[in-house]
């Protein structure tokens, strides 16, 4: 039984690495606009456009840092733009590059199973999603609740070639899977959208939105997660709450490490497995794996 669990871990979905893009609640290339008052917990940033792309925020430059960022009553955090003082421009360039890399990574994942392909032909109201990669060759929409069911360590990736349309008052609900390991974390939920995103009035979303074009959050809508857009984001009295930054749940800039499947294999090989009432300790292969990966000094001297 434990051996089967180890094999299941090998097949588990890897997290999407956000790099320094994880330092932002909203990050865009062409700007962020708000109809006041919106409420954003976390940093916002735009690049290559300058602060002319941050509209509706009534920004106040931070004199203590000689203008490296600005503040606004609508953001619990800092506002960054490409024309702010050094080193902000280079940091934003890196963050935008990390955003693009994360989008490409998420878009390139292989669907977990045939059952995860084109669920509901894109109309997913009432559906329950467990951990894995889901793919649609169309728009995805829902006008009521959908459920994301799993544990705090599970990874969910939703890929779509079209748009993500969330109707007014619709809601993403996070549910524990009954294992006692908590419920899914919004930092482990990724929406990769090749088109645009619309979140209707008073609707609620969970997760990291990686969108190729723009994202619009209408009056009273909300998100626990991040919006990482390759064009613009518009907010109308919306509420955006980012996971703690940096985001270790998805390999953010503070974690420094993304566990790839090859690394997972090395870890699993070293587990202690109960078999036939006895203990089978597979240490030899784990030692050889880490000897190769880490370049142990003792091996070099031999």
Description:
With 302 residues, the protein is an alpha/beta fold. It has 5 helices and 25 strands. Strands 1, 3, 4, 8, 9, 11, 14, 17, 19, 21 and 23 form an 11-stranded parallel β-sheet that branches. A 7-stranded parallel β-sheet has the order 5-2-22-20-18-15-12, with no helix packed on it. A 3-stranded parallel β-sheet has the order 10-13-16, with no helix packed on it. α1 packs antiparallel against α3 and α3 crosses α4. It is globular and about 55 Å long. The two termini are 40 Å apart. The N terminus and C terminus are likely disordered.
List the helices and strands and how they pair.
Elements: H1 2-10, E1 26-28, E2 31-35, E3 39-41, E4 44-46, E5 54-55, E6 60-61, E7 70-71, E8 75-76, E9 79-81, H2 88-107, E10 128-129, E11 132-136, E12 140-142, E13 145-150, E14 156-160, E15 164-166, E16 171-176, E17 189-193, E18 197-199, E19 204-211, E20 215-217, E21 222-229, E22 232-236, E23 239-241, H3 261-269, E24 272-275, E25 278-281, H4 284-294, H5 297-301
Parallel strand pairs: 1-4, 1-21, 2-5, 2-22, 3-8, 3-23, 4-9, 10-13, 11-14, 12-15, 13-16, 14-17, 15-18, 17-19, 18-20, 19-21, 20-22, 21-23
Antiparallel strand pairs: 6-7, 24-25
Helix pairs in contact: 1-3, 3-4
């Amino acid at each position: 039984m434990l051996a089967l669990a180890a094999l299941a871990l090998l097949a588990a979905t890897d997290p999407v690495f956000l790099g320094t893009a994880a330092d932002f609640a909203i990050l865009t290339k062409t700007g962020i606009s708000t109809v006041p008052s919106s409420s954003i917990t976390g940093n916002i940033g735009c690049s290559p456009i300058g602060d002319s792309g941050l509209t509706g925020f009534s920004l106040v430059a931070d004199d203590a840092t000689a203008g490296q960022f600005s503040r606004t009553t609508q953001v619990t955090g800092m506002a960054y733009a490409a024309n702010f003082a050094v080193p902000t421009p280079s940091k934003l360039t890196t963050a935008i590059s990390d955003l693009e890399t994360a989008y490409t990574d998420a878009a390139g994942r292989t669907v977990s199973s045939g059952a995860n392909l084109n669920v509901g032909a894109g109309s997913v109201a009432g559906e329950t999603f467990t951990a894995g990669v889901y793919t649609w060759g169309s728009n995805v929409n829902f006008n009521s609740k959908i459920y994301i069911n799993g544990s705090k360590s599970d990874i969910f990736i939703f890929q779509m070639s079209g748009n993500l349309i969330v109707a007014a008052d619709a809601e993403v609900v996070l549910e524990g899977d009954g294992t006692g390991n908590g419920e899914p974390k919004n930092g482990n939920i990724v929406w990769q959208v090749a088109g645009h995103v619309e979140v209707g009035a008073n609707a609620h979303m969970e997760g990291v939105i990686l969108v190729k074009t723009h994202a619009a959050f209408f009056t009273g809508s909300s998100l626990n997660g991040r919006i990482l857009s390759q064009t613009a984001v518009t907010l109308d009295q919306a509420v955006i709450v980012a996971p703690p930054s940096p985001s270790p749940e998805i390999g953010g800039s503070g974690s420094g490490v993304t566990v790839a499947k090859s690394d997972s294999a090395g870890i699993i090989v070293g587990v202690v497995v109960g078999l036939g009432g006895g203990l089978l300790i597979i240490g030899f292969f784990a030692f050889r794996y880490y000897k190769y990966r880490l370049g142990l000094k003792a091996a070099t001297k031999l």
